[in-house]
Amino acid sequence: MRAVVQRVKRSSVVVDGNTVGEIGGGLLVLLGVGREDTEEDLEYIYEKTLKLRIFEDENNKMNLSLLDIGGDIQVVSQFTLYGDARKGRRPSFSSSAAPDIAEGYYEKLIEKFRNTEGLGTVATGEFGADMKVELLNDGPVTIMLDSKRLF
């Protein structure tokens, strides 16, 4: 499982002209599910995202997590995180999970965040939709996570 985690002042997702989710300060998580992923991969992304110390403390040091600040989180599916462009000019997505499997993991991750005490708003995108994602990156701070620890 892969995630691009961005510290944001705000983010929102629009589908067909309608805002389907939005948050204030916190994290925007773009989530890709690989065809080899398991519940362990889901747990890794969940725990790592919650506990990443990428928010500044009173000394302007990145020492605080999303839980520490009670921030918001928005999770958006993005299968293109498994795009492989090493050969040719068109990316291959053969490492991405099938949509039904990917959607199941996506929904489970959202549910885990919604059941986590201490978080602010938990928002989403719309799985499989053509989404317009708008964000105001804070820092900017962008962290890439891979549950297989490939990077």
Tell me what you see in this structure.
- This protein has 151 residues and is an alpha/beta fold.
- Helices cover 22% and strands 37% of the residues.
- The strands form 2 sheets. Strands 1, 2, 3, 6, 7 and 8 form a 6-stranded mixed beta sheet that branches. Strands 4-5 form a two-stranded antiparallel ribbon.
- A hairpin with a 5-residue loop joins β4 and β5.
- α1 crosses α3.
- The longest helix has 16 residues, at 99-114.
- 34% of the residues are buried.
Helicity, as a percent range = 10-25%
Mean pLDDT: 97
Outline, from the CA principal axes? globular
Sheet with the most strands, sense and barrel status: 6 strands, mixed
Query: How far apart are the first and last residues' alpha carbons, in Å?
Result: 12 Å
Number of strands: 8
Secondary structure topology:
Elements: E1 2-15, E2 18-23, E3 26-32, H1 39-51, E4 55-56, E5 62-64, H2 66-69, E6 72-77, H3 99-114, E7 122-124, E8 132-146
Parallel strand pairs: 3-6, 6-7
Antiparallel strand pairs: 1-2, 1-3, 1-8, 4-5
Helix pairs in contact: 1-3
Question: Can you tag this structure with a few keywords?
Answer:
151 residues; alpha/beta; two-stranded antiparallel sheet; 8 strands
In short:
This protein is α/β, with parallel strands linked by helices. The protein is built from three helices and eight strands; from the N terminus they run E-E-E-H-E-E-H-E-H-E-E.
